[in-house]
Amino acid sequence: MTITAPPAVARAGVLLLAGGLAVAGCAAPDDGGSASTSIVLADGYELGGYNPVAGHGEAGNSRIYDGLLRLASAGEAMPEFEPALAAEPPVADPSGQVWTVRLRDGVSFTDGTPFGADDVVATYEAILDPASASPLASSFEMLESVAAPSADTVEFRLKYPYAAWPTKMLLGIAPSERLAPGPAEASALNTEPVGTGPYRLTSLRADQAVFEANRDYWDGAPGVETLTVVHVPDDNARAQRVAAGEVDGANLPPLLADTFSGRGGLEVDANTSADWRGISLAPDGPVTSDPAVRTALNLAVDRDAMVDGILAGYGRAASTPIPDVYGDAYDPSAVFAHDPQRAQQILDDAGWRAGADGMRERDGIPARFTVMYFPEDTLRRDLAQAFASDAHEIGIRVDLDAADRSVLPQRLPRDAAMLGGGDLPYDPDTQAYATLHSSYNAPGVGGAYDNASGYVNPEVDAALDAGRRSLDPAERDAAYREVQRAYVTDPGYVMLVFLDHTYVRTASDWAGIEPILEPHSHGVDWGPWWNLREWRRP
């Protein structure tokens, strides 16, 4: 792969920026020294939207809410689930369609009201309620009903056996009386959240949120008493604020984070993730809808060079949405080799002929299409540029378009896009189903980014359904290996990389920092701060 000039120029600019600040900047802040119990973080994600029915904390990363279950670190391996608002692990009946959960006693919301089974029922029913227009509704389509047979017990009835149901119990629980009917995006919980979690929101502006420790937290009051999160959307601006000692940490893209390695008083953290980056291929595009073009592009890209040159080694090559963290469900043979010569032969055989300038066309249609990316996301920009360079080498011209988030989804049927996925990676089903299953092509099913390539493959559908409905671990593993094998013979995207999420923080004497496998989201809710509730002085 030939890395185009812009990524190299961007890296050089990053080095100069960070180096200059190191000379001229102030000392790094004390994010916890012997007296401080406050931390200030810079986040690239917008603040607000703290309503679990609207999707907040779906992967178990909310500081405001607890789910029935929560994540427990297993390092780079798949995390364990442990009881949170549940008093003990949930129990499934032999059919796998009825899950019973006994609830923890003596828990209160931060407004002083007691937590109980009615709150669990109301939260899940709000997601299912069409009036909520919850973005999570399609991912809970297997839930038939939820009920409280007693004051301390909740029973979930599913439409079919679903072994991955515990992943759905990471969802934060809100007070029933605050779940008013109507759209979730209009709920007061988005800006005035009330949960049972280790922190409560005390102040919210567009550029800053302040969280105070919940001193009555059922699992013990957090040692970090005040967390302030400032919204800084620009990557370089966040790096500046870390280098100048204005904040105690930030999420940064890999090349930018790497410039802080070895700098005194600062730590670079990298957490393995199942978060992929890849190119959706527009189903209505005359070029991107062609199976020959889709296969050729997958063979043309040099994924290893992207990992080394753009991710600074913080990541792994991706050919499908399923990474090796899934163990026996992962098929190591289901990969695309970097083979641009074979890619060109496939295009030749499909009638895409190269002109004098090396660019191809077929029946008067040029082999040319647009790839969109979010303008503020420098990592997606750099990956898109590298993809365009590799496509050019086999005679396909890719135009890049920094498209606003508000318009990009509407353009997906006709234009390609640099997308990310892996929103809930704690089971192969929640990792791959919405990305590849053809049911998400039906109007009104899922969100704009679900199956963004309009992918249809009956073999993949059948294997995904088998993995979703089986309760036998070996059968499930075999089904997901079949998903990967069928996919690489007929790809719908150009998967590129799995990211290691990178963060920079000031060194401190806080104990309790642990890695965890991360989902697509990688703001400061994750990184070294994902388990902030557990940080303690040594």
Protein described:
Residues 1-27 form the signal peptide. InterPro entries: Peptide/Ni-bd, SBP_5, SBP_5_dom. This protein has 12 helices and 20 strands. The protein is 24% helix and 21% strand. A hairpin with a 2-residue loop joins strand 15 and strand 16 (365-366). Residues 1-34 have low confidence and may be disordered. The protein is globular and about 75 Å long. Strands 1, 8, 9, 10, 11, 12, 13, 17, 18, 19 and 20 form an 11-stranded mixed beta sheet that branches. It has a 4-stranded antiparallel beta sheet with strand order 4-5-7-6, covered by helices on one side. Strands 14-15-16 form a 3-stranded antiparallel beta sheet, with no helix packed on it. It has 538 residues and is of the alpha+beta class. Among the domains are: 52-186, Dipeptide-binding Protein, Domain 1 (Dipeptide-binding Protein, domain 1, Alpha-Beta Complex), CATH 3.90.76.10; 274-499, Roll (Dipeptide-binding Protein, domain 3), CATH 3.10.105.10.
Describe the secondary structure blueprint for this structure.
Layout lengths: L4 H20 L13 E6 L25 E4 L7 E4 L7 E2 L5 E5 L14 H12 L14 E8 L2 E6 L40 E7 L2 E6 L12 E6 L3 H9 L5 E3 L2 H5 L7 E15 L10 H10 L2 H7 L5 E3 L22 H10 L3 E2 L5 E3 L2 E2 L1 E6 L4 H16 L3 E6 L5 H4 L4 E6 L6 H9 L21 H12 L3 H17 L3 E14 L32
Parallel strand pairs: 1-10, 1-11, 17-18, 17-19
Antiparallel strand pairs: 2-3, 4-5, 5-7, 6-7, 8-9, 9-10, 11-20, 12-19, 12-20, 13-20, 14-15, 15-16
Helix pairs in contact: 1-3, 5-7, 10-11, 11-12
